[in-house]
Amino acid sequence: MAFRFHIASAILALVFTIVHASDPSPLQDFCVAVPDANAGVFVNGKICKDPKLVKPEDFFFPGLNEPGSTSNPLGSNVTAVNVNQIPGLNTLGVSLARIDFAPYGLNPPHTHPRATEILVVLEGTLLVGFVTSNPGMNMKNKLFTKVLNPGDVFVFPEGLIHFQFNKGHSNAVAFAGLSSQNPGVITIANAVFGSKPPISRDVLTKAFQVDKNVVKYLQSQFWWDNHYYP
Asked: Which residues form the signal peptide (predicted)?
């Protein structure tokens, strides 16, 4: 496992050295104007520490060799390492995640509104894919999907809905690099059926063309968040 971990680290390091990543757009969902500059936050990144006070620990995060707990209904765990875990990532436009899968575990359909994702499989067999944005009238969104084995790499373009599913009888592990210090994540089912306050059932009934009782049932479920932020 240690050898595979080093392979993944080397691949992701190579990607980060040959691809220039940055965050020219906002790093949060919205930015409301305030008249008092002292009451606000920076739009693109966090406040910078005085360089004289910077320590090696500001660029360090331990323990990503340890698997995350997959004891949840999805059978997966995403351990995110972004600017909130490594302050030195501020303004650098990159972050990382380890994804653990139990047998038949799923990282459900989701999107990163601020990042492209590149994923490498270390262990197991994953069915992955993403769906294109709306192509035009009377045209279908296209699914790009692939079965990945150890050593395989797949890219999920920024903002597009994507997923990863463990097809095997054993655990699976993957690492993902993301082109933002704070890529964000929107899990589709959680956002649509688990928002607070809930989206109107009339809206969802018409949008999904199902009976209102189906929407009521889905909104009554507990929508699990498989993301862990150390």
From this structure: 1-21
CA distances from 16 to 94, 158, 163, 173, 194 (A): 8, 16, 22, 20, 35
User: Phi and psi of 195, rounded to 5°?
Assistant: -70, 155
Domain ranges of the chain: 58-186
- Give the model confidence (pLDDT) of 172-213 as tens digits: 999 999 999 999 999 999 999 999 999 999 999 999 999 999
What mean pLDDT comes out for the span 39-54? 72
Q: Would you say 107 is a known binding-site residue?
A: yes
117 carries a ligand binding annotation: yes
Whether the Cβ atoms of residue 101 and residue 160 lie closer than 8 Å to each other: no
Confirm or deny that 20 is annotated as ligand binding.
Answer: no
- Is the link from the previous residue into 109 a cis peptide, with omega within 30 of 0? no
C-alpha 26/C-alpha 162 separation (Å) is 22
Quickly tell me which residue has 């089912």 as its tokens. Answer: 189
The CATH number of domain 58-186, selected from 2.60.120.10, 3.40.50.300, 3.30.420.40, 2.40.30.130: 2.60.120.10
Residue 169 in marked binding region: no
Average the pLDDT over 109-134 and give the result. 97
Q: What percent of the chain has pLDDT over 90?
A: 67
